[in-house]
Amino acid sequence: MITKDMVIQEIVTKYPQTLPVFGQFNMGCLGCSGALFETLEQGALAHGIDVDAMLKALNDLIKK
């Protein structure tokens, strides 16, 4: 299960199938250094993204 306090890079490394969800939410920071230390919540807030909606989409995907 993915949580708000997981580092973005950790999520992508553990669940590579989540990449399209980051794109769907226009979170293109996966190639930047912020992804190495920012949590999902920090990244979402920085980009004006509803973190709860994104978290639901990510977890729905990995449950499949």
Automatic annotation (TrEMBL):
Any Pfam family matching the protein: DUF1858
Species the sequence originates in: Syntrophomonas wolfei subsp. wolfei (strain DSM 2245B / Goettingen)
Name under which the protein is recorded: DUF1858 domain-containing protein
PANTHER family with a match to the protein in the record: BSL7085 PROTEIN (PTHR39341), DUF1858 DOMAIN-CONTAINING PROTEIN (PTHR39341:SF1)
UniProt cross-references to Gene3D superfamilies, sorted A to Z: SP0561-like
NCBIfam families, per database record: prismane_assoc (TIGR03980)
Positions in coiled-coil regions: none
Highest taxon of source: Bacteria
Domain DUF1858 residue range list: 2-54
